[in-house]
Phosphonate ABC transporter ATP-binding protein
Amino acid sequence: MEKHMLSLAGLGRRFNATRAVDNVTLDIRPGEFVGVIGRSGAGKSTLLRLINRLIDPTAGRITFGDTDVTALQGRALRQWRRDCAMIFQQFNLVERLDVLTNVLVGRLADHGFLSSMAMRFTDAERTLAIRALDRLEMAPQALQRAGTLSGGQQQRVAIARALVQNPRIMLADEPIASLDPGNATRVMEALRSINRDDGITVLVNLHTLDTARAYCHRIIAMRDGRVFFDGTPRQLTDDVVRDIYGTDGLAEFDAAITSTAAHRRLRQTA
């Protein structure tokens, strides 16, 4: 599969008078593992939703190689969302369906209308889904109803669903925010494995600083909708972090540090 640069040029999104994302220009190289950090409301989630085209920009462009992502419509837009898989904080599984069927939902973009409505999948697709679940250590739960799983298990099922899309880019919006440290580690290790072994570009919004430093090749920090920092984990010093969160965000900064310490302790004992 040909690899392309993901480029954002002057990207912006307004909600009435609020600039949720403001003039963001970035180049994301193929195979990068990029962490996005910042205060609540800094624009992190909006940025990922813009890239996936779940919402439309009010300014700027998104390109992937020669493709103008901001101009895509209809089937081409559905194909982009297949190529640019999205993982959500709240998992977005259908709780009444079994785990295997939830993963197979990731294949619907390749189906016609009738087979999508009937949820008809081939044996090859079922094999692909089982392999993805096995990779996430969730194959034994394949026939279990998704709503009976723990939060960490549900998030791994969501990653398996994204994986069967055969994406070029994987976006993860606060995928560990609601998880305990043990499950958070399992999810981050799964994303790192996908990035390393499959060469898939990963962009992940994170609220724990140590997680960003431990897993990401590159860290982007947002503040008030703008890119405030773009560099390596080593360059993300404590002084830079204080500037990112600002004096009025010290409580959130302290919470990030506390969560970071708990995650570090668990990694040391794992």
